[in-house]
């Protein structure tokens, strides 16, 4: 919490800032290094842009040698603007339009097709454009679901990918399209245990081996094992490290680290979530029999999942005084309420904190992924100032929105008030 204290003292967390988000970029760099050292050197680690689309953060990750995983047209452009080489951008949208695929082909992106019809579309476009697609096929291994159903994508039914039991159609696609060179699998995000991740990847790895046996060694040249490693949101959480994950994969998938296939990963939450905190001023403290409610300036606008599904999305919290010193005293029960006009707007319920008063600062930890990127426009609240701290120096990663910015947003980018 020393960084928040410094940001206040040095004027980075200004009087007009009702809240800020602070990224520890050194911590993010260390997590990138832990990931890259755990996997073979030639692995392409494509950071999931959806987890944290802040351009300065993406630019730093590009400079560190990562690739980017884009799930929309906008994320493609964010990745390009951040400096990711096009050949290290993976395009994974489940609803790719013809024009989006034209762009992907022209840029040389690696496209993970979500269904067999998309392969037909890619083949037609490639012939029309005189280009050979770089593409893989997403497979649903039907390995099961984790404890969070909404973020598990490898159950018996999933909106994503081609079910593994459709093996004959998959084999036919590899026979029909000589340019089809990869397989893609993703099990889920948060809530999936190591055993489930390894089982799902292993099932698709076996498919790759079968395809190589049928069509010749190296037929599957790219093996994209997705992301899915969880972050620790509770003190008791013990998520597997990248090293532990790869060691488990090596046991299940012999030869995984050989030169026969290029590995691709698509981690986001595991890398970025632990590297940021949100700090909001307490505007009011309301007391009712059995309840103490601290009203803050961040709610379901930033913490969408946390407010709608608090059972699965907890956050650790701390309480600072107005000048950034951690408050002392016996912890008492608080409900941390956001500023939005609906009754479920509680980013954290039942937080045990020292007695809060107006002007204090609530710090919510582990907000570096799937928070700002899921920002809601309900009530047209201003997105807060986002700071970065790197080698002891602060920078502004994104400036606080002003009311005129919100007016322009609702007008649309091509119009003016």
Structural commentary:
The chain has 417 residues and is α/β, with parallel strands linked by helices. The chain is 30% helix and 22% strand. It has helices at residues 2-9, 25-38, 55-63, 73-82, 98-107, 116-129, 167-176, 194-215, 242-252, 269-272, 304-308, 403-411, and strands spanning 19-24, 44-48, 67-70, 89-91, 110-113, 134-140, 162-163, 180-184, 222-224, 262-265, 276-281, 284-288, 291-295, 317-320, 332-337, 348-353, 361-365, 385-390, 393-398. It contains 12 helices and 19 strands. The strands form 3 sheets. It has an 8-stranded parallel β-barrel with strand order 2-3-4-5-6-8-9-10, surrounded by 5 helices. Strands 14-17-11-1-18-19 form a 6-stranded mixed beta sheet, with helices on both faces. A 4-stranded mixed beta sheet has the order 12-13-15-16, with no helix packed on it.
Number of strands: 19
The averaged pLDDT comes out at 95
CATH topology descriptor of the largest domain:
TIM Barrel
Q: Could you say which structural class the secondary elements and strand pairing correspond to?
A: alpha/beta
| CATH homologous superfamily caption of the largest domain | Alanine racemase
Rg over CA atoms, rounded to whole Å, is: 23 Å
Low-confidence stretches: none
CATH class of the largest domain: Alpha Beta
How many helices? The count is 12
Q: In one word, what is the shape? A: elongated
Q: Sheet bearing the most strands, described?
A: 8 strands, parallel, barrel
Tally of structural domains = 2
- In CATH terms, what is the architecture of the largest domain? Alpha-Beta Barrel
Q: What share of residues is helical? A: 25-40%
Distance between the termini: 41 Å
> In percent, how much strand structure appears in the residues?
15-25%
